[in-house]
Amino acid sequence: MIDHVTVAVSDLAASKLFYEKAFAPLGYQLSFGEEGVFWAFDIGDGLFEIMQSASPGVLTRIHVAFRARSHAEVDAFYQAALAAGATDNGAPGPRPAYTPNYYAAFVLDPNGYNIEAMIDAPKA
What we know:
Elements: E1 2-9, H1 12-23, E2 29-34, E3 38-42, E4 47-52, E5 62-67, H2 71-83, E6 87-94, E7 102-108, E8 114-120
Parallel strand pairs: 1-4, 5-8
Antiparallel strand pairs: 1-5, 2-3, 3-4, 6-7, 7-8
């Protein structure tokens, strides 16, 4: 159901080191990322990500990505979320910078949280 969760951190380098050490006993390892921007840890059937925060927010900044079963489901999520009052944060479309088959849509919920629907598979 949940593909990945992203948490904003104040010191990306320190947080990366912390999670590398804390996750080692669980068998979780650094998977990919970009220096100064974010790091993703493989936690089995999903990812736990940390991203550099420019400034602390009033609310904890959170990004949650939900797995969809099709590209059409991603599109439908996006339209339904906007109709329900969300703000656009990235229209449905390919995200080849993530992986070659990544397709996603992003919205900000009423609290400003970044909610994503995604599929990482070729379009059927």
